């Protein structure tokens, strides 16, 4: 029988940061301004976010007209660096 793989039901703040690429502070500020789904009480001393609410929030974000910043993690071409041997050494004449 094939194994069933499901997305998590609840995610912790650390996982949420990775899922959304937002910092914990930004998430907490957005929750306070009602711009982000609030966490759910999982037990007396633990909270988590519902994965489906986070996915719905992300899908409903407006499309951006802003291009990504230049530092997107893409590999940049390396500048050609001359090795000391190829730079030539002064020769006595």
TrEMBL record:
Region spans: Disordered: 60-93
Organism ancestry: Bacteria, Pseudomonadati, Pseudomonadota, Betaproteobacteria, Rhodocyclales
InterPro entries: AlpA
Protein name, per record: AlpA family phage regulatory protein
Polar residues bias (residue ranges): 83-93
Domain of life: Bacteria
């Amino acid at each position: 029988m094939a194994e069933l793989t499901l997305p998590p039901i609840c995610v912790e703040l650390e996982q949420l940061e990775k899922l959304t690429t937002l910092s914990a502070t930004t998430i907490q500020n957005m929750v306070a301004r009602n711009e982000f789904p609030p966490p759910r009480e999982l037990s007396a001393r633990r909270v988590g976010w519902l994965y489906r609410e986070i996915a719905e929030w992300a899908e409903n974000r407006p499309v951006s007209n802003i291009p990504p910043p230049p530092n997107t993690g893409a590999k940049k071409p390396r500048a050609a660096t001359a090795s000391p041997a190829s730079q030539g050494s002064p020769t006595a004449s």
